[in-house]
């Protein structure tokens, strides 16, 4: 058994609790989702989250893992054509069932939170193999979040707007490239 540092095992515990919550939430989402596209996204992602969880269990119990996380490829770019008008929403403190927007929102926020946790844990990790796994888990969450946000944008659940040309021009006029790149490795 390889030894992990105490802070690495503490991070693993937090990540295992987070992953347990994510998988439980995904199971609940699958039991309530109506939109087949969203259901397919969650079903496809579930495999990766279960593999990620099982690898964390292996790290926590054996101090190592011999598996490699299946990191998904980058989803296609979100196209702004065919985007629905922004749909209004209001929280419902008396809800007993989630609609597709609430499911997508909750799942997206779960992925974003998990991604931040993986990034933080990665920076604190001394074990290079565990660090690589955590980097892969971050990338998985990032790509899953990108796919879910794309779905939400197309449905009008997530506001997105192209930056005005005046702002882009102002920004581009603010920074200049470094001319002497002799210091770059």
TrEMBL record:
It is found in: Spore coat. Keywords: Capsid protein, Sporulation, Virion. The keyword Amino-acid biosynthesis does not apply. This is Spore coat protein. PANTHER family: SPORE COAT PROTEIN F-LIKE PROTEIN YHCQ. Belongs to the CotF family. Its main location: other. It holds the Pfam family Coat_F. The keyword Zinc does not apply.
């Amino acid at each position: 058994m390889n030894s992990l540092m105490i802070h690495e095992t503490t991070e693993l515990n937090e990540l295992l609790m987070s992953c347990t919550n994510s998988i439980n939430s995904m199971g609940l989402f699958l039991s309530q989702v109506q939109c087949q596209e969203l259901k397919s996204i969650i079903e496809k992602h579930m495999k990766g989250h279960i593999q990620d969880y099982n690898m964390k269990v292996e790290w926590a119990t054996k101090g190592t893992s011999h598996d490699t996380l299946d990191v998904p490829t980058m989803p296609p770019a979100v196209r702004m054509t065919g985007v629905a008008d922004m749909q209004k929403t209001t929280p419902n403190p008396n809800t007993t069932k989630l609609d597709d927007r609430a499911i997508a929102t909750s799942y997206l926020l779960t992925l974003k939170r998990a991604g931040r946790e993986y990034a933080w844990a990665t920076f604190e990790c001394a074990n290079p193999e565990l660090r690589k796994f955590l980097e892969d888990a971050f990338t998985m969450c990032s790509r899953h979040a990108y796919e879910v946000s794309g779905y939400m944008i197309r449905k009008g659940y997530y506001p997105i707007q192209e930056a005005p040309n005046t702002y882009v021009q102002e920004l581009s006029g603010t920074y200049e490239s470094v001319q002497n790149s002799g210091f770059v490795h």
